[in-house]
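Escalated from tier 1: iron/sulfur cluster holo job.
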Amino acid sequence: MIRQLPMRQRIRKTLVFLAFLSFPITMNFFSPYVIIDGAMNGIINGSLVMFGLMFLSSLFLGRLWCGWICPGGGMQEIFEPVNNKTVNGSKIDWIKWAIWIVWFALIVIFAVRAGGYQSVDLLYHTQNGISVAGTADRPIFIAYIIYYVVVALFVGLAVFAGRRAGCHTICWMAPFMIIGRWIRNRFEWPSLRLVADASTCKDCKSCSKTCPMSLDVNAMVQAQKMENAECILCGTCVDNCSQKAIRYSFSAGK
Ligand code: SF4
Ligand code: SF4
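Tier 2 regenerated the structure:
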C-alpha cells in the first residue's frame, strides 16, 4: 500500500518542487557567479541581496529556507525515489566550506578592488527578471548551458551519492545560513528550532530513516540536543514520529 505523506510534507514538497520549476526564472538570483560579476563592477545585484536575505532569515528561522523553498533542494528531492541512500555528512560537509571560503574571499577582494559598491541593479544579468534568457551580451544558449550544468551538478550528486548530497557538498548558500544560525545560538535569542522529549521516544528510528539530510535524529532526540548545522527544519522527523517526540518551537536555546 502506498503511504500518503503527512499534509505538512505534501505542502513542503510542493513548495520545493515549485521552486525547482521556477529555477529558469530565478537562477541568477542564486548565482555564485553573478554576485562576483557584480562585485567586479561595483553593482549590488539580485544574488547579493538574496544571499543577504538568506543570512538574515537564518538569524530567526535557521535553515528553513533550505527545507521549504530552495530550488536546489527541490531538484534533489525529486530524485529521492531514484537513490534514497543516506549520505555520511560528517565525511563530506567540509567540502562546501572549502568552496564557500574561497568564493566569499573572491567576492570581498573584487568588491574592494572595484572601490566598493556604487550602484544597484537587482535584475542584473536577467532579461526583465528572467534568468534563462538571451541578453545584449549573452545569447540564450549560454544561459541554457549554465542552467543545465547547475541542475546536472545537484541532480548528479543526488542520483549517484544519495539524499540531498549537493546540500552537504557543493551548496554555496548553506554556509550563510549556518553562520546565521551559529550567531543566533551564541546570543540565544528566540528562533525557530526543533525540540524533543526523549521520554516519549520508543526508539523506532523512523526519524533517522526519513531525514532528507541523513542526520541521526534518533541520537539527537535521545541526547535532547536537536541543534545540528545540517538540519534544514523540513519537519520530516516531526511528521514521521508516531510518538510526537519531536516538535517545532520558536524559542531561545543553543
Ligand atoms: S521517530 Fe519518534 S519515537 Fe521513533 S526514534 Fe524518532 S523520536 Fe523516537
Ligand atoms: S532533523 Fe528533522 S527537520 Fe532536521 S533535516 Fe532531519 S528530518 Fe528535517
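The chain has a mean pLDDT of 96.
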